[in-house]
Amino acid sequence: MARILPLVLMAFAFTLMATGAGSAQQRTQHRPGVFDHYLLALTWMPSFCAFTGDARADTRCAPGQRRGWQVHGLWPQHADGGWPEFCRAPHRNPSRQETARQADLFGTYGAAWHQWNKHGSCSGLDPAGYYALTRAAAEDLTLPDVFDAVSRDLRLAPQVIEDAFIEANPGMTPDMLLVTCRGNAIYELRLCLTRDLTPRACAPQTLRRTCVLGSARLPALR
Q1: Is the separation of the CB atoms in 178 and 190 below 8 Å?
Q2: Within 13 Å, how many C-alpha atoms sit on residue 209's CB side?
């Protein structure tokens, strides 16, 4: 028993140290302004509607909207592939009027609020700065015209989506963007950006989130 007790105490001390280190790391991971680069995420709205929007009666899914690629958000990212979220920002939250002014960018004022709350709060910017930066990132990106003519469901390789964006945006390379899938459908296009919005190569850990389907469904515009 005399020999076991010191071992138990050592194990307990080690556990406390490990827990403390983990807590410190977690605090660092979710500090406003502490991140490496951004991801600009665009959602293919017909896929969003099929998986989520229709069940919520989301106004963006109403017939005749013909919404294709919609800004999902501008997300701070860590170099190791992780990301901060729901940070305790030193700024006040955006007002209803401020989020309403972003409805054209995010689709609804509710989406604008959610993106600030989850991601913008970690940017180190105030709401106006975060929204302005997101808008600038979206405006710097040229959306391929070919997606305006998707009048029926298609099946294609995710790489076709990436190739279309690369062709429409000179200087963009395959390692700067990725397509994600949900179920058997193409869901999002994500572009890696520096903190000053210059397209950059994605970290290997980020690229692991790409769609691995050889062929995926691209639902038609509504």
Answers
A1: yes
A2: 20
Q: What is the pLDDT of residues 128-179, one digit of tens each?
A: 999 999 999 999 999 999 999 999 999 999 999 999 999 999 999 999 999 9
Q: What is the residue extent of each domain of the chain?
A: 32-218
CATH of domain 32-218: 3.90.730.10
Pick from 74, 119, 83: which is nearest to 203 by CA?
Answer: 83
Amino acid at 193: L
Q: How many other C-beta atoms can be found within 10 angstroms of the C-beta atom of residue 110?
A: 14
Structure tokens at 122: 């970690």
Alpha carbons within 13 A on the beta-carbon side of 205? 7
User: Which of 208, 190, 212 has the alpha carbon at shortest distance from 37?
Assistant: 190
- DSSP run (H or E) holding 20: helix 4-29
Q: Which amino acid is residue 204, in one-letter code?
A: P
- What's the token pair of residue 182? 């949900």
